[in-house]
Amino acid sequence: MPKNSKVVKRELDDEVIESVKDLLSNEDSADDAFKKSELIVDVQEEKDTDVEEGSEVEDERPAWNNKLQYILAQVGFSVGLGNVWRFPYLCQKNGGGAYLLPYLILLLVIGIPLFFLELSVGQRIRRGSIGVWNYISPKLGGIGFASCVVSFLVCFFVALYYNVIIGWSLFYFSQSFQQPLPWDQCPLVKNASHTFVEPECEKSSATTYYWYREALNISNSISESGGLNWKMTICLLAAWVVVCLAMIKGIQSSGKIMYFSSLFPYVVLLCFLIRALLLNGSTDGIRHMFTPKLEMMLEPKVWREAATQVFFALGLGFGGVIAFSSYNKRDNNCHFDAVLVSFINFFTSVLATLVVFAVLGFKASVINEKCIAENSEMIIKFLKMGNLSHDIIPHHINFSAVTAEDYHLVYDIVQKVKEGEFPALHLNSCQIEDELNKAVQGTGLAFIAFTEAMTHFPASPFWSVMFFLMLVNLGLGSMFGTIEGIITPIVDTFKVRKEILTVICCLLAFCIGLIFVQHSGNYFVTMFDDYSATLPLLIVVILENIAVSFVYGIDKFIEDLKDMLGFAPNRYYYYMWKYISPLMLLSLLIASVVNMGLSPPGYNAWIEDKASEEFLSYPTWGMVVCISLMVLAILPVPVVFVIRRCNLIDDSSGNLASVTYKRGRVLKEPVNLEGDDASLIHGKISSEMSSPNFGKNIYRKQSGSPTLDTAPNGRYGIGYLMADMPDMPESDL
């Protein structure tokens, strides 16, 4: 089809030239080009260009079918394993209410403002993470690019152990098709003379035993690798195969099942909560969850882990939020999206945690009843032996069916009467709070708590299948966003085929992930969860905040938001972005570094003989791994800074190839970078400049080609959002 002159002019104007040097060398020339273009274009042309370019962007950029689909996609990205698996165990680990309050404060002070910031930036600039931060903060000496590399490494580390959790879920899912469930009762051990209950299970519980011994077959320490756990190795392989195939094909079919997959977890969790609340002792667990412990709230570790969970929960610093919002219309109310998704996310975390703590309350109640029964027998024995007088026991006490209140009354009386001799009696107070405080289950908490709840359901295999299907669904949703954060920057930078890169990435990740399916693998999951993402994510989010607030300019950004949204955001965000959030983030970073230096890192090991957890310090090589994980993820920041500031890249080198992007075509050619500023932008204002991101240009409509509203097979974009479409034909230019 012939093209009119306006279209031809637009094609020529859309040519963008960039090189590898643009990512590492000083980009002040780009700013000069912006200023020059603004000077030579009169006001009327700016308006015409804005309208023309705005409509072109809307037509060219893949878009969401409707607002609800976008909200569900954001919820699906942010609501995942972090809510059902990570949040409950961190909440339990850090004292329940002592963790909830800091989390809520950080959500309001850091989470929602920075989530709004990422949504706004993506929607305004309409580029991927590298393009956005390269555009916003060229004067940071490459920090924008470095933060993307940090995000890439964090995504890779997280993907390594998140898929292990999906593997755990697949294992439990495969074991759910039997009645009774295999974790319903302790196994029996037979020898030549008699049959008895497995001692490790008897000392703990059936669900705890199944998790540590049948599923993980865990060793006593991280130093005892024990070889590969073949059951978990097969499950991990299956998980990576599913992720790889889904990423290659793209799952726009998820658009059709998005309503189901996004709402299904809430149905399952509500059913579990209703059943858990009917269990004896559940209210004690929930009371423990909402009771803050002020002494724990003063520990920097609690605030650091709460901040990290905010980042995990909302996807801050990973680049996925920016990618999602870049497909929105320019006038979309992203402030409403930020608040809505943040509170849905928080509600989901609290919902899952309520179930966990209700079940923990039930388990503590069972253990407490056993404790009361054993100690009541000891008191009866002391009464028969004459060590205690019958006169001190109230007449209404019946030791054959003693209640918790009656036992505590007798315990207090005996403690007062036998003041000096009381320790020799070895009586236990049997307080349910003591059981709740010591019931630390670590990374397996959700698996142990939820499997305990489902054993009390009618038709328990059905609920087990539903729960682990939900967990796999949530995990895959998290993995798609995480893997996309790994693959997209590489595809955009090196222009490789996404399918080949996906296979290589998944195969490499599976091979490295074998360390997590050793008998000591769970300890490595804990190590990666504690140290691979915490500090790097803090640094990435700090850099994002600085880039927008102090380099791009908070006043200019607020004006952009006003122009984009049609109203000025509340002044609250101005003060959060400019003062409170960066100060809070920097304080958390400093406190975390100091706390890590003062408190040697360690982990909770499962001791088979004791059938309980015990805190152990990492060996020397473990300490080296912990430090290496943090240093490796943070290293790009100073490296790129030094390269940019010291001009270590030779500007005159002819070895740096550039890439010229045109509609539907990519041409590699050598370019004189020194005098080519004008070719970067031709008469366009900076806010409407053609994206240097590779993904945008190949989505353009072609003359004579069918109208497409999605990316071609998700090849150079967010693959799991796009339909499986044929490749777009090349332009005849």
UniProtKB/TrEMBL annotation:
<feature type="transmembrane region" description="Helical">
    <location>
        <begin position="575"/>
        <end position="598"/>
    </location>
</feature>
<feature type="transmembrane region" description="Helical">
    <location>
        <begin position="306"/>
        <end position="327"/>
    </location>
</feature>
<feature type="transmembrane region" description="Helical">
    <location>
        <begin position="339"/>
        <end position="360"/>
    </location>
</feature>
<keyword id="KW-0813">Transport</keyword>
<dbReference type="GO" id="GO:0005886">
    <property type="term" value="C:plasma membrane"/>
</dbReference>
<dbReference type="GO" id="GO:0006836">
    <property type="term" value="P:neurotransmitter transport"/>
</dbReference>
<feature type="transmembrane region" description="Helical">
    <location>
        <begin position="100"/>
        <end position="119"/>
    </location>
</feature>
<dbReference type="GO" id="GO:0035725">
    <property type="term" value="P:sodium ion transmembrane transport"/>
</dbReference>
<keyword id="KW-0479">Metal-binding</keyword>
<dbReference type="GO" id="GO:0015824">
    <property type="term" value="P:proline transport"/>
</dbReference>
<feature type="binding site">
    <location>
        <position position="83"/>
    </location>
    <ligand>
        <name>Na(+)</name>
    </ligand>
</feature>
<feature type="transmembrane region" description="Helical">
    <location>
        <begin position="228"/>
        <end position="248"/>
    </location>
</feature>
<dbReference type="GO" id="GO:0015657">
    <property type="term" value="F:branched-chain amino acid:sodium symporter activity"/>
</dbReference>
<keyword id="KW-0597">Phosphoprotein</keyword>
<dbReference type="InterPro" id="IPR002438">
    <property type="entry name" value="Neutral_aa_SLC6"/>
</dbReference>
<feature type="transmembrane region" description="Helical">
    <location>
        <begin position="618"/>
        <end position="643"/>
    </location>
</feature>
<dbReference type="GO" id="GO:0005295">
    <property type="term" value="F:neutral L-amino acid:sodium symporter activity"/>
</dbReference>
<protein>
    <recommendedName>
        <fullName>Transporter</fullName>
    </recommendedName>
</protein>
<keyword id="KW-1133">Transmembrane helix</keyword>
<dbReference type="Pfam" id="PF00209">
    <property type="entry name" value="SNF"/>
</dbReference>
<keyword id="KW-0325">Glycoprotein</keyword>
<feature type="binding site">
    <location>
        <position position="478"/>
    </location>
    <ligand>
        <name>Na(+)</name>
    </ligand>
</feature>
<feature type="transmembrane region" description="Helical">
    <location>
        <begin position="500"/>
        <end position="521"/>
    </location>
</feature>
<dbReference type="GO" id="GO:0046872">
    <property type="term" value="F:metal ion binding"/>
</dbReference>
<keyword id="KW-0915">Sodium</keyword>
<feature type="binding site">
    <location>
        <position position="474"/>
    </location>
    <ligand>
        <name>Na(+)</name>
    </ligand>
</feature>
<comment type="similarity">
    <text>Belongs to the sodium:neurotransmitter symporter (SNF) (TC 2.A.22) family. SLC6A15 subfamily.</text>
</comment>
<keyword id="KW-0812">Transmembrane</keyword>
<feature type="transmembrane region" description="Helical">
    <location>
        <begin position="140"/>
        <end position="162"/>
    </location>
</feature>
<dbReference type="GO" id="GO:0015820">
    <property type="term" value="P:L-leucine transport"/>
</dbReference>
<keyword id="KW-0769">Symport</keyword>
<keyword id="KW-0029">Amino-acid transport</keyword>
<feature type="binding site">
    <location>
        <position position="76"/>
    </location>
    <ligand>
        <name>Na(+)</name>
    </ligand>
</feature>
<feature type="transmembrane region" description="Helical">
    <location>
        <begin position="70"/>
        <end position="88"/>
    </location>
</feature>
<keyword id="KW-0532">Neurotransmitter transport</keyword>
<feature type="binding site">
    <location>
        <position position="345"/>
    </location>
    <ligand>
        <name>Na(+)</name>
    </ligand>
</feature>
<dbReference type="InterPro" id="IPR000175">
    <property type="entry name" value="Na/ntran_symport"/>
</dbReference>
<feature type="transmembrane region" description="Helical">
    <location>
        <begin position="257"/>
        <end position="278"/>
    </location>
</feature>
<keyword id="KW-0739">Sodium transport</keyword>
<feature type="transmembrane region" description="Helical">
    <location>
        <begin position="533"/>
        <end position="554"/>
    </location>
</feature>
<keyword id="KW-0472">Membrane</keyword>
<dbReference type="InterPro" id="IPR042934">
    <property type="entry name" value="B(0)AT2"/>
</dbReference>
